[in-house]
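Margin note: ligand = zinc ion.
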Amino acid sequence: MDLRELPKIDLHCHLDACVRVSTVTEIGKQLGLVLPDSLEAALIAPPVCDGLMDYLRRIDLALEVLQREGDLRRIACELVEDFQADGVIYGEVRFAPQLHTKRGLSLQQVVNAVHAGLEEGKQRYGVLTSLILCCIRQQDPSVSFEITKLAADNQDKVCGIDLAGDEFGFSGNPHVNAFILAERAGLRRTVHAGEAAGSDRIQEAIDVLHAERIGHGVRVVENPRLMSLLKDKAVALEVCPQSNVQTRAVDSLEAHPIDNLLKRGLRVTVNTDGRTLSATSCTREFQNLFRHKGWTLDEFWQCQFHAISAAFVSRDIRRLLEARIQRASKGERPNE
Ligand SMILES: [Zn+2]
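Resulting structure:
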């Protein structure tokens, strides 16, 4: 069974963590950046990092090449090409526009450029995508509000918002106004939580920020009552197993609670986080789960159906995705 051939959904994928090494080299040279001797070492996180912030610092160089309209557009389009090569039929791409204004672009220009790249990718490679804008925990809440307003003003291009960044050091509470605005504007909401910090951050994401999905959320296992709540509310977990090992959210893939969470009936999905940063793909994530957790196609399809239910899409797109996954899960030819 070639997992690459099967249709998959990636709900948690950061644009700046997916820039190809060859593209960083090319744009870096154009910009006259001083590039490190080993770009791989600079852009790809080691198997185990010194926590989440050590993992995240490896996107700094990628951010340097994501500051011009043409480069943003190109890199977004290349990500869609990478989705196609991975068998991904629908991908949700997230990024923080406020980190892409160093060379003078406005936030609107940044969003337009990434959206244009995703559209170009859809035309060329036939992969559907949606765009999520990230607020960042350690930034001033006024920035989160501005980014959410940008999302609300661009609902033809953006489906929702996220809260990312330093979970250990910063509560989500100060960003509540951004999330209230998002909810009122009809934007979808996801929050990174229960990755670098404990289950209390997940509780906060649900109670205060009204998150509909949780990025990672693996530390919910510490709190059985919260597990029941997530199950009852059908809050999806965007689990990224490889990244969870690298950031030390879990000790190893073998010790990852993903199978327990799935068995307990939580809406578990499997995602990449950063295709370059974690040197991964959806295919590889599932290959690892097959190898290290004894997963089979049963779990694979279960996660795809969970992802369809949790995707930030219209009813029509959800039906379309469901039909494609349904056909493939019954053994009909994939990706038709
Ligand atoms: Zn993430």
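The domain at 3-329 is CATH 3.20.20.140 (TIM Barrel).
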